[in-house]
Amino acid sequence: MTIRSPIDLVPPAGEVFRALADPTRRAVLDALLVEDAQTLSQLCSGLPSLTRFTVMKHLGVLEQAGLVVTEKVGRHKRHHLNRIPLEQANRWLRKFFGKSSATIGVDELFRSTESTAQLQLW
User: Fold this and answer.
1) Binning pLDDT at 50, 70 and 90, where does residue 13 land?
2) Distance between CA 62 and CA 79 in Å, rounded?
3) 64: pLDDT confidence band, cut at 50, 70 and 90?
4) What is the DSSP letter of 39?
5) Which of 9, 51, 67, 117 fits a 20 to 30 Å CA distance from 61?
6) What pTM was estimated for this model as a whole?
7) How far, in Å, CA of 20 to CA of 87, rounded?
8) Mean residue pLDDT across the chain
9) DSSP-based three-state secondary structure for 1
10) For the stretch 88-109, what's the b/e string if a residue is b when 16 or more beta carbons lie within 10 angstroms of its beta carbon?
11) CA distance linking residue 41 with residue 38, whole number of Å
């Protein structure tokens, strides 16, 4: 058996940012922030505008990016928010905003970039 270094377990930053780019995935992360260790059914009831399949698909992307960790408890899977990739992304982003950037949230950043993206300068 090969023992992997902890650095091998950290997903590439591109996967984290790709996962965070989708507003539906951010809503799933928000739901896990409010109440961690939710089952798929609990997440679906908290996100009534999404189908079960949609929530499952987005959970898969979040797991692949390392933002969600799944634990099997009996017959149920519990989904947990993993803050480590978020902290790493936040640490990298802070250098672009100076000292006051500690108060800038990821959602604020994406709202800002989404409104800027609407101004297509050609």
Assistant:
1) confident
2) 10
3) very high
4) -
5) 117
6) 0.71
7) 13
8) 82
9) coil
10) ebbeeeeeeeeeeeeebeeeeb
11) 8
